Amino acid sequence: MSDFETYKQSIGNETVVLPTVETIALGNQSAITPESDYQKIIDVAFFLGKYYLWVVFAVGFPGNLSTIITIIRMRSLGSFTLYVVILAVVDNLAIGVKLLFYQILENKVNIATSGCRIFYFLGNFMVSYANWVLVIMAVERLVAVKYPLKIQKLMNCRRSMLALSIVGSVIAGVYLPLLWTVYFNEENRFCDYDGSAQLLSFLQWANISISAFIPFTVLTVCNLLIVRVLKESFRVRHALRSMQQTVALKPKASFYKYDVSVQRQVTIMLFTTTLVFVLLMFPLCAFKVVDKHWKVRNLSNEYAAKYLVNQLSYILCDSTHAVNFYLYFLSARKFRSHFLAMSSCATPTRAASL
């Protein structure tokens, strides 16, 4: 692939146009030539961009499918398990739509303007919605940790579905302009924007804000608050246990009667998932912040390095749709036991739920 041709990245990524240079012959020299390692770096970036989604698909699709099957077989549908199933479904849709659209662009298939609009809308919507499902999970878990005795009254499947519907409607509304501003470029065989520069700038920043900046910020704050609340609850629990031992209360008369085992596992499971999400999303957020201030010269090694960093940041961002099952497996004992029992066609020794 030529280092000077236009390279269209797939859904969720901004279009990156490598510079087209008109060389002026001066004897046997050209007026402008790439620096020594420019081509090598660009080739690496193109190679990663061409194949990384297949790796994400190979790792993420079966993992998300395993999550769905495991949760359904647990037969314990609460608000949290509902979020886990929907997140796995949306993650697989995000991976599938993005990979399919990437292949369409790569092979220059004529999908017409309607096809471009549908793929752009669905791709951006699925990527952003998956991240916001995780945000809703984190907010609910923060409430559960802060008010453990009231969470059953505050949250249920009906209210969870309402929250998911409202958030989904808002995200869909933000991406609606894509349904009339995107068209299929017949000459170059790719999808392009047909709108004002102001609208294009708005869509780009709305996309990066909804899919990355806001979820990153909210999840970071939620994790910090969960850690703080847990520290306070541990101190209170220790004081109550000391009081119980002092007055010689019987276990059934204890102030701390409810079972915290399941809630602890759910909290650890979600905290691990959101922490990994924040770590994987941070490079993209950081790159977008410094992008406008990172000035590079065309055809320089630094220009190629900047493009490679951009590509790597999107690889890490897309990986968030592929790793959740493995995080659940490592951090949640009950989820792990159910999955292993299902894989070996055995029956769990005791009923367990998330």
Automatic annotation (TrEMBL):
It is a multi-pass membrane protein. It is found in: Membrane. One of its GO terms (cellular component) is plasma membrane. The chain crosses the membrane at residues 51-72, 84-105, 117-139, 160-183, 203-227, 266-289, 309-329. Pfam families: 7tm_1. The keyword Transmembrane helix applies. Keywords: G-protein coupled receptor, Membrane, Receptor, Transducer, Transmembrane, Transmembrane helix. InterPro entries: GPCR_Rhodpsn, GPCR_Rhodpsn_7TM. Residues 63-328 form the G-protein coupled receptors family 1 profile domain. GO terms for molecular function: G protein-coupled receptor activity. PANTHER family: G-PROTEIN COUPLED RECEPTOR (PTHR24243), G-PROTEIN COUPLED RECEPTORS FAMILY 1 PROFILE DOMAIN-CONTAINING PROTEIN (PTHR24243:SF230). This is Thyrotropin-releasing hormone receptor.
